[in-house]
Amino acid sequence: MEWVLRPAQGLRGEFIPPADKSITHRAYLFAAAARTPSEIENPLQSHDCEATLNALIQMGAEVRRLSGAAIALYPPTEWHSPAGSLDCGNSGTTMRLLMGMIASRPLVAELQGDASLSRRPMERVASPLRQMGATIEGSQAPLRIRGGELEGIDFVSPVASAQVKSAVLLAGLRARGTTWVREPELSRDHTERFLSGLGVDMLRRPDGAIGVEGGAEWEGFRIRVPGDLSSAAFWIVAACLVPGADLVVRGVGVNPTRTGLLKVLTQMGADLEVLSESSAQGEPVADLRIRFRSGLRPFKIEGEIVPQLIDEVPVLSVLATQAEGTSTLRDAAELRVKESDRIASTAEMLRKMGAQVEVHPDGLDIHGPVQLGGTRVDCNLDHRIAMAAAVASLIAADETRIAGAEAVLTSYPHFLDELNRLRVD
Ligand code: S3P
Predict the structure, then answer these.
(1) pLDDT digits 0-9 by tens, 100-138
(2) Is residue 67 pLDDT above 90, yes or no?
(3) Which of 310, 341, 410 is the best mutation target for the ligand 1 pocket, counting ligand atoms within 8 Å of the beta carbon and taking the most?
(4) Whether the predicted pLDDT of 22 surpasses 90
(5) How far is the C-alpha of 172 from the C-alpha of 193, rounded, in Å?
(6) Which pick of 33, 80, 218, 368 has the fewest CB atoms within 10 Å?
(7) Which one is the CATH code of 21-224: 3.40.50.1820, 3.40.47.10, 3.65.10.10, 3.40.50.300?
(8) Neighbours of 205 (CB within 10 A)
(9) Alpha-carbon torsion 161, 124, 176, 91, what sign?
(10) β-pairing verdict for 222-224 and 210-213
(11) CA separation for the pair 256, 178 (Å, rounded)
């Protein structure tokens, strides 16, 4: 599918972002592993989360769609090995978290993915799970896993990755003894918050490691999934780019391990206002107002803030093209193993639109301000590149074409409808 987008004269209105993708995946997995049924209100209905749900159904979970956007999930009465291979589509979270679930049960499963997912590193999860006692063939999809009885380990992850951390903790919940995970910087902590909310004791060591005891059990739960800041990010940044823009976002998750974008925008001098803040099921939620302001300062992103904005780099890079000076990003080599190599694909997209960008092994330098021009961008099976390009199109001099735009179905199926609703022509 190719989108053809024109520049906008303004952006105005209120929006509710789609439900948080990370929390939806975890809600499905923790509901399937619970002793009794759960109700999940407002789950993200997108290809990535459907992949997780379908895999759980293939292993014995049952799902009933309730009225409104809610589902009831019944845990398997008996887990069984899936008959066919589990299709994780484009979703790294699906594949990595399922690896932890399957490794700790007497199941045999094959996990496969699309061309993008099949290129991504799985050894970072396979290796600790093997140390715990699982048998895993392959270091990239397709993977074959034979799970069973595991031993707890003390794992030091070489990367700050919530997917790695969560996969090992999921396995640890059914392993003998205690399982510890330490990461170089804190990645998103939805798993820890979710498990604490379910009454599971989360252990913490002075060196920052978190741990779980094997054998934890929990009852089914009710959860309402908050809005996804990583999806709202496209409109928040768009409002910083389009002269006269004024947007309000309602009910967006503002977990501090996810709000690097808001911290960077504040440093850049953006007009960002927190209208209200509350909390739901252990996750902070806010309403925000964002208005255009000219003369934004460039950003300098490095170190521990990187995991807090890891999914927002493509769209923040679009904003950097309009800042007054050179923005720099470092310590972000993880971007090279996302749905695409996001250092390369962000640079390619921006250069095609006329931006001045230098590529580093672990980041980018982006020189602003420049007038962007329209072009044709291929989003390389990467939803966030497609949506970042769509945001750039709002301030381009002419028409922008985005090839492979169906990639947005993985996280934001109604993105284009929302764009058409919020834009002023
Ligand atoms: C996710 C964690 C992040 C993020 C991804 C979702 C999660 O990946 O990029 O979109 O739900 O745990 P890493 O943890 O591998 O950095």
Answers:
(1) 999 999 999 999 999 999 999 999 999 999 999 999 999
(2) no
(3) 310
(4) yes
(5) 16
(6) 80
(7) 3.65.10.10
(8) 11
(9) positive
(10) unpaired
(11) 27
